[in-house]
Amino acid sequence: MIVPEQLQSIGLSPKAAERALQSLQGGDLRGFVHELLLHGLWSDVIDEAQPRPQWMERWQQLAATGFPIIDAAALQRLLDAGVDVHDLTGVVRSAQILAIYNIAQLLDYPALGLGWGLPEAATPHLACASEAAPDAAQRLHALAPELLSRDPAGRFGEPRPLVLRQWQALPAEPREHIRALVQEDNHRAQAAALWKQHVGGELRACLDAVAVLKDALQEIR
């Protein structure tokens, strides 16, 4: 039996989890399957917030065991050339988000990319059914319109700003001190001074960084 806490653990709000369960209990599987698919798509996107991105170590471990697909040699060449690991993470994450968005559109409209102009009666679509009622298939709710709003980073798929990355890499004490100052309009100069102390840069650049950080923190609340 599915409980609300299980759905909340994959990112649903309490109200959304309750709605999905009510639909499921009423025999409508679509809301439940919809949430599982959205969660499953995003779970394949790398976590960008680790101090050293964990996906690299994972890819290297998989490649060492003979796992196909991963080009570990190209990854190592980029690292040896001095590519910033966080920049590389940003590029990989962007590619993954583009891929899951395209997959969501394909699931929503399997024939869309063919350009055949099929009439509605002949247009294929995906549906879900339970073992208890295999003949009562229900067309899935569209995934693509909601996909970007489910970004765990809270940025609707947008790349992570360099300033946000630099802030997240700071030790906890100065990071939270800067956060508190940034969120107070009258403490912008103090936040910039603290940024200069811990990150560096000219004062003008530090003030600009504080402004960017304020916007970024508002978006990911």
Q: Got a strand count?
A: 2
Helix and strand run: HHHHHHEEHHHHH
Spatial order of strands in the largest sheet = 1-2
Mean pLDDT: 86
**Largest sheet report:** 2 strands, antiparallel
Multimerization status: single chain
Q: In angstroms, what separates the terminal alpha carbons?
A: 32 Å
CA gyration radius, whole angstroms: 22 Å
The shape is: globular
Helix percent band: 55-70%
Runs in which pLDDT lies below 50 for 5 or more consecutive residues are none
Structure classification:
mainly alpha
Would you mind describing this structure in some detail?
It is a single chain. By secondary structure, this protein is mostly helical. It has two domains: 4-150, no CATH class; 162-219, no CATH class. It contains eleven helices and two strands. A hairpin with a 2-residue loop joins strand 1 (127-130) and strand 2 (133-139). The mean pLDDT is 86.
